[in-house]
Amino acid sequence: MDAPRHPAPDAGPARGPRPPLVPIERLDAVPDAALAALAAAAARHGFDSEALAEAERLLPAMAEAMRGPAIRAALAARTEPRMALARLFAYDDAVPAERVQALLGAETTGALAAAGLLEPAPAPRGAGWRARGRLMPFEGLLVWSDRPDAGDAAVMGPGATTQGAARLLPARIAGDVLDVGCGAGSFALLAARRGARRATGVDIAPRAVALARFNARLNRVTAEFAAGDLLAPVAGRAFDLIVAQPPYVVEPEGLGGVTYLHGGARGDAVLRRLLAGLGRALAPGGRALVVADLWLPRGATLHETLRAHLGDPALDLVTLAAPGLSAPIQAAAYASLDDPSLGERYAWAVARYLEHFAALDAQPVHAALVVRRRAHAAPEALTVTVPVAGFAGRDGRDVDQLLAAMDLLGAPDATLLRAALRASRHATWVEERRAPDPAAEARYSVRFERGALARDRELSGSSLVLAATLDAAPSVAAAVERWAAEVGASPAEVRDEVLAFARDGLASGLLVPAS
Ligand SMILES: C[S@@+](CC[C@H](N)C(=O)[O-])C[C@H]1O[C@@H](n2cnc3c(N)ncnc32)[C@H](O)[C@@H]1O
């Protein structure tokens, strides 16, 4: 036989053992009563997002393999029930058997052990239990998933990006909702909990569907789940809301792909196919929220790149774009999922990622895409990129307001004159003087909170008064009247000035439509 013309890609040092997957075969056998008792115990003992946030604050923003041992050590010294449950369910720690039994009850402990969800493990003083996978509090829900370092077949539960996306969703969700690439079901369960008429999750991995169904039962919410490629399992249906966090990590050659993590050599293979299909799957007036990290090629603009993937020219696209994590931080984080022992293979994988990132010649962007199919025909679709520092502190109201602002921006004068505008609730209006002399010339500016969907800017004194006039008026038309009186002109003379200022204010985030 001929020798291969190219050597096989370097597959790197052998991988050490990875944590076990959740055994999905016996999930159906866990009685409803045990699941209800588990959820009740978590609520009673305060094992919720707050407890987890408190534990996370012990060592934030560091790869899991590094901070895990430190968090476990810190929590082992804590006596509160919620921290014992955090150790057991979120931090892979063995907790003494009698403590677990006291917290969950003997029957629930037994049922979880019978299903293989708890396994015996030596604890510091005798026998203990350790969870298989993780049970994570998420927006008032509990979500059982695999550990992120459990290998190719791991099913992802709610992580930091899932949390960020959840905040950008409306507080009340109506209509038909689809969670694409649902993993352990986080977005579909959340939509059902927030009021969706029908919540559906789809995932390429049948294991994900099994875990998502289990989680629906655990949280007593009604949601449907199906296995298949992207939108194929729901072909022919149209949704009011679609949510997705596709796998977006680049896959260096030889590393071996992980379904929940990798999106091909550029990381965008699944994202591109998803965006291309959204037009058909959104109902009129429907909206999609897609969160992803991207590597934007040098010289390319984000909104042209994304618009090209979207295909359908009739869809509005508003992208919130924050700087992504640097290449070394991403390399360390993803390599540590490949080799959680941080051994020889970890070092090899870091080098593979770094080489791969360098070859991309691109910059990292963390993005939330809001795609909307208008309910009524619009003259031109919107394509807007809003630079933000991050998504912390943003919520669904900000996204609604942003879309409403974009609508008004493109509307005819008569529509804008009827609208009422308000100053952004994220702004601080600043007056500065170089001397403590009230007669000294002042500089005016508006500064936004970190992460606001707007950028700081200088203002003239008269712009500040005009912004205040618009903020106080019941409509832009009324502001035209008031401004005319203020400057001693006729409304017809100042109308264009006020409209131009209003549009500029909407475009820059200074002004928002009154809700
Ligand atoms: C990054 S995880 C997101 C999980 C969950 N939605 C969340 O945000 O926590 C990506 C998910 O997409 C799924 N996936 C990957 N390729 C897919 C495809 N072609 N069709 C459907 N799902 C896919 C993976 O199995 C994984 O569950």
Automatic annotation (TrEMBL):
Q: Pfam families given for it?
A: MTS
Q: Does the keyword Methyltransferase apply?
A: yes
Q: Cite the Methyltransferase small domain residue spans from the record.
A: 167-307
> One GO BP annotation here?
methylation
Report the SUPFAM superfamilies cross-referenced here: S-adenosyl-L-methionine-dependent methyltransferases
Q: Where is the region Disordered?
A: 1-22
Q: Which UniProt keywords apply?
A: Methyltransferase, S-adenosyl-L-methionine, Transferase
Q: Does the keyword RNA-binding apply?
A: no
Q: Which GO terms describe its molecular function?
A: protein methyltransferase activity; S-adenosylmethionine-dependent methyltransferase activity
Q: Which GO terms describe its cellular component?
A: eRF1 methyltransferase complex
Q: Which protein is depicted?
A: Methyltransferase domain-containing protein
